[in-house]
Automatic annotation (TrEMBL), chain A:
Gene3D superfamilies: Nucleotide-binding domain of ferredoxin-NADP reductase (FNR) module, Translation factors
Pfam families named in the record: DHODB_Fe-S_bind, NAD_binding_1
Upper taxonomic lineage: Bacteria, Bacillati, Actinomycetota, Actinomycetes, Kitasatosporales
Native source species: Streptomyces spirodelae
Domain spans labelled FAD-binding FR-type: 12-107
Protein name in UniProt: FAD/NAD(P)-binding protein
UniProtKB/TrEMBL annotation, chain B:
Protein name as it appears in the record: 4Fe-4S dicluster domain-containing protein
Keywords linked to the UniProt accession: Iron, Iron-sulfur, Metal-binding
The keyword Iron is annotated on this UniProt entry: yes
Domain 4Fe-4S ferredoxin-type per the UniProt entry, residue ranges: 257-289, 338-366
Pfam families linked to this entry: Fer4_22
Species, as recorded: Streptomyces spirodelae
Domain of life, per lineage: Bacteria
C-alpha cells in the first residue's frame, strides 16, 4: 500500500485563510489577497493553482496571480456560484485553501533565452508571477516581451503594473478586440502583436495562457515563426473537483491536468487539442 | 507454515464457516457474495450459510440470470452487479466538515469516524487486480486519499480462484486470472468431487497465516492440490470472451477518429451503468451542503460517470458534449490512457460492463471492431474476429 510520501501536500482538508485585501479589476473580475490563519501551505510557484473553498458553496481551481511569502493572491472572474462568492469576499472573510497543485511554468527552460509571454484575458493572472520572476532576475534571460489581448479596454487587468514592467525593460504590447472612444492602442487579436515583439526565434521560450482558441492560434503562429514546439508552454483549463488526481474530471487523453498540467509543453498539447472533444 | 511458499492446506465447509465466524469475532465487517433480489450481490454475511451454495449465473451481453447448480459450489459464479469498490471507495462519503466560529473564522475538520475494518470473502482474481489498480489511483501519486488508504490497509482479503468463467469473462486476455495473483491474505480454490466439497487454501500474508492457524484444517493432499490446479487451468481455456491480441493502448491511440465510434454511439444510451459496475472506475464529484443555521457546512464526495454531460462542464460549456466523445473517453481511458496515467491497464476483464449495459454493448466486441477497422484502413487484410 502506498502511503503519503514525505513532503506531499495532504489531499484534505482545506487550511483556513483570511481575506486581507480586495481590489476590483474589471466589472466582473476581482483580485483577493489571502493570508493563512495559522501556518501557510507549502510555497507555490508561478503557474500552479490552489483549490479555494467558499464556505458552504464549494471549491474551485484558481491560479496564483502573485506570490509573496505566505500571502496568496488570486484574480477571479465571476462566472458561477463559487467564483462569484469568492470574488465578492471583503477583508476579514474566511476561505479554505488546498494546494499547491499542478505543474508550474518551467522558467529554467527559458534560461539565456528571449521570453515571449502571451496572455488572453484572464490568462494574464497565472502569467503575472512568471513576469515578476523573470524581471527580478534579468541577468538570466534575454529580452522579455509581454503581449496582452483583452476583449475591451475595460477588461484589461493590472494596468498600473504594465507600467512597472515597462520600466523594468520589458516590452509590453497591448491590444483589444473592441476599442472604446478613448482607446489609442492596438485593435485585434493578440497574434497581431507578434510582428512587433523582439525575439530571436531560435533562442526564445514562449509562455501562453488564455482561451484555448487563442493559445492554439498563437502557438501555431509561433511554430511558423521558428519557435520549436517544445519551447512553447501553454496553461490548459479543464474541470477539476479535487486537484489531487482522484476525481478524474481533468483528463485530456493521457494527461491528468491537475497533476501533469495545467502547464503543458506545446509539443505534448498540440496533438491532443487537435482531436475534437478529447 | 511459511508465507509465500507452496505449502497449502485444505478447509472443508465447516472450516470456511469457521473462517467467517472468526473474522467476525475479530471485529471485522465480513462482506461476501450472497443471493439477494435474483442476483449474487456483495453484502455483509453472518456465516457460511449466507454464501451462494448451489447457485451459478448465466451471463450474456445485457443479460444476467441465476441458475441452480447441482454440485452445490459456493464460488462457481462470476462477477455480480457490484464490486469491492462499493466498500473501499464508497458511492458517497463525507470528507470534511467546516464550522463558522463566533468571530467569523472557519474551523475545518477532516472526517475522523474510524474506517471500518473489512474482511472480504471470495475476491476473484480479476477483482483482486482491480483493487490493486484503485490502490495506485487513489492511494498512489503525490496526494494519497488517506481514508481509502486506511480502509484498504485494514481489509483482510480472502481471494477465490475461478474454476468456472462466465460467458462475458476475459481475464486471460487482460492477464488478471483465472489464477490468483498477489495481494491476498488467504486464497481459496474450491474443489467439489467424489471426495467431497473442500477448499484448497494458500497463505499470502502473515495475517493470513495467523488466521488460518486458528482454523480446523488439514495439510493439502496431492490429489486436492492437483485437482485445484487442473480446474483453474481448464477455466483459463474456457474464457467467454477475448480482447484482440494487439497493444490495446496503441490501438486506442490510432483509432480516435474511427468510424466505429459512430456505430457504438448510435446504440449507447450514455446511462453510465458500465462505469458504476466497473471495479476500477473511480471518478467522483463533490457536493457542498450547509445546515439551516448556515454555520455548519459539509463536503461530500460521490461517484460520478464520465458519461454525464456535466462531467466536463466549464463556464464555456462542456468539453465532451457529444455522446461519441463520452463513449470514446470511457473506452480509450480503460484500456489506453490509463497506462499513461497510472502505469497499468484500467480493465481487468471482469465483464461487468458487458452484462450490465442495458443495450448489451460489449467492450471486447468494440475493441475487435476498432482493430478490424484499423487493419482494413492500413490494408493489411485479415484480422481475427
Ligand atoms: C488550473 C486552473 C486554474 C484556474 N485559474 C483561474 C483563475 O486564476 N481565475 C479564475 O477566475 N478562474 C480560474 N479558473 C477557472 C475557474 O476554476 C472556473 O471559472 C470556476 O471553477 C467556475 O466555478 P463556478 O462555481 O463559479 O462556476 P459554475 O459555472 O457555476 O460551475 C458550477 C460548478 O462546475 C464546476 N466548474 C465549472 N467550471 C470549472 C472549472 N474550470 N474547473 C473546475 N470546475 C469547474 C465547479 O464545480 C462549479 O462549482 C481556473 C481553472 C483551472 C482548471
Ligand atoms: S471495463 Fe468492463 S470488463 Fe473491464 S474491468 Fe471495467 S467492468 Fe470489467
Ligand atoms: S455502454 Fe452501455 S452501460 Fe455504458 S453508458 Fe452506454 S448504454 Fe450505458
Amino acid at each position: 500500500m502506498t502511503v503519503l510520501a514525505p513532503g506531499a501536500a495532504p489531499a484534505l482538508p482545506p487550511s483556513p485563510y483570511r481575506v486581507v485585501g480586495r481590489r476590483l479589476e474589471t466589472s466582473d473580475t476581482a483580485t483577493i489577497e489571502l493570508e493563512p490563519v495559522r501556518s501557510g501551505l507549502a510555497p507555490f510557484s508561478p503557474g500552479q493553482f490552489a483549490m479555494v473553498y467558499g464556505f458552504g458553496v464549494g471549491d474551485i481551481p484558481l491560479s496564483v496571480s502573485r506570490i509573496e511569502g505566505d500571502r496568496l493572491t488570486h484574480t477571479i472572474r465571476s462566472v458561477g456560484a463559487v467564483s462569484s462568492r469568492l470574488a465578492s469576499l471583503e477583508g476579514g472573510a474566511s476561505v479554505g485553501v488546498r494546494g499547491p497543485f499542478g505543474t508550474g511554468w518551467d522558467l529554467t527552460a527559458a534560461m539565456g533565452r528571449d521570453l515571449l509571454i502571451v496572455a488572453g484575458g484572464l490568462g494574464l493572472a497565472p502569467l503575472r508571477p512568471l513576469i515578476t520572476a523573470a524581471l527580478t532576475a534579468p541577468e538570466r534571460y534575454g529580452r522579455v516581451n509581454v503581449l496582452i489581448g483583452a476583449r475591451s479596454p475595460g477588461d484589461l487587468l493590472y494596468a498600473d503594473e504594465a507600467e512597472r514592467w515597462r520600466a523594468a525593460d520589458a516590452r509590453v504590447l497591448v491590444t483589444v478586440d473592441r476599442p472604446d472612444d478613448t482607446w489609442r492602442g492596438d485593435v485585434g487579436v493578440v497574434t497581431g502583436l507578434l510582428n512587433r515583439a523582439e525575439f530571436d526565434p531560435g533562442a526564445t521560450a514562449a509562455f501562453l495562457c488564455g482561451p484555448e482558441v487563442m493559445m492554439r492560434a498563437t502557438a501555431r503562429d509561433l511554430a511558423r515563426r521558428g519557435i520549436a514546439a517544445d519551447r512553447t508552454q501553454v496553461s490548459l483549463e479543464r474541470t477539476m473537483h479535487c486537484g489531487t488526481g482522484h476525481c478524474g474530471h481533468c483528463q485530456l487523453g493521457p494527461l491528468l491536468l491537475c497533476r501533469d498540467g495545467p502547464v503543458v509543453r506545446w509539443d505534448h498539447a498540440e496533438p491532443l487539442l487537435a482531436v475534437r472533444e478529447l | 507454515m511459511t508465507v509465500g511458499t507452496a505449502v497449502s492446506t485444505v478447509l472443508d465447509r465447516d472450516g470456511l464457516d469457521a473462517l467467517i465466524t472468526l473474522l467476525a469475532e475479530d471485529g471485522r465487517t465480513v462482506i461476501g457474495p450472497t443471493v439477494r433480489d435474483q442476483a449474487i450481490v456483495l453484502a455483509e454475511i453472518g456465516s457460511g450459510a449466507d454464501l451462494p451454495y448451489g447457485w451459478g449465473v448465466e451471463l450474456e451481453a445485457g443479460h444476467y440470470r441465476l441458475r441452480s447448480r447441482a454440485d452445490g459450489a459456493a464460488f462457481a459464479h462470476s462477477a455480480g452487479p457490484q464490486s469491492w469498490k462499493t466498500y473501499l471507495h464508497p458511492q458517497r462519503e463525507r470528507q470534511w466538515t467546516a464550522d463558522l466560529t463566533a468571530d467569523g473564522d472557519m474551523e475545518v475538520r477532516e472526517e475522523t469516524s474510524p474506517p471500518p475494518s473489512y474482511a472480504f470473502i471470495g475476491v476473484r482474481p480479476c477483482d483482486l487486480r482491480a483493487i490493486a489498480i484503485q490502490d495506485r489511483v487513489l492511494g498512489g501519486g503525490p496526494h494519497a486519499d488517506t481514508r481509502y488508504a486506511a480502509r484498504r490497509r485494514q481489509a483482510f482479503v480472502v481471494a477465490v480462484e475461478c474454476t468456472e468463467p462466465g460467458a462475458t469473462c476475459f481475464c486471460v486476455s487482460m492477464g488478471t486470472g483465472p489464477a490468483v495473483g498477489p495481494g491476498y491474505d488467504l486464497a481459496l480454490t474450491e474443489v467439489v468431487d467424489g471426495r467431497g466439497h473442500r477448499f484448497l487454501a494458500r497463505v499470502g500474508s502473515p495475517e493470513g497465516e495467523a488466521v488460518l492457524a486458528r482454523l480446523p484444517h488439514v495439510p493439502a493432499d496431492e490429489e486436492t492440490a492437483g485437482t485445484a490446479r487442473r480446474l483453474v487451468e481448464e477455466a483459463a481455456a474456457r474464457m467467454g470472451r477475448t480482447m484482440p491480441e494487439v497493444d490495446l493502448r496503441e490501438l486506442m491511440r490510432e483509432t480516435l477518429d474511427a468510424e466505429r465510434w459512430n456505430d457504438v454511439t448510435a446504440r449507447c444510451l450514455t446511462c453510465g451503468n458500465c462505469t458504476m459496475a466497473c471495479p476500477t472506475c473511480f471518478c467522483t464529484t463533490v457536493e457542498d451542503v450547509t445546515d439551516l443555521t448556515g454555520e455548519h457546512a459539509e463536503r461530500w464526495r460521490r461517484w460520478e460517470s464520465c458519461f454525464d454531460v456535466d462531467f466536463t462542464h466549464l463556464s464555456s460549456g462542456p468539453v465532451r458534449a457529444s455522446p461519441l466523445s463520452r463513449y470514446r473517453q470511457w473506452l480509450t481511458h480503460k484500456v489506453g490512457t490509463w497506462h499513461d496515467q497510472f502505469d497499468s491497464t484500467g480493465c481487468v476483464g471482469c465483464g461487468r460492463c458487458i452484462v450490465w449495459c442495458p443495450v448489451g454493448i460489449d467492450i471486447t466486441e468494440e475493441a475487435h471492431a476498432l482493430d478490424a477497422e484499423r487493419a482494413a484502413a492500413s490494408g493489411d487484410g485479415e484480422v481475427e474476429r
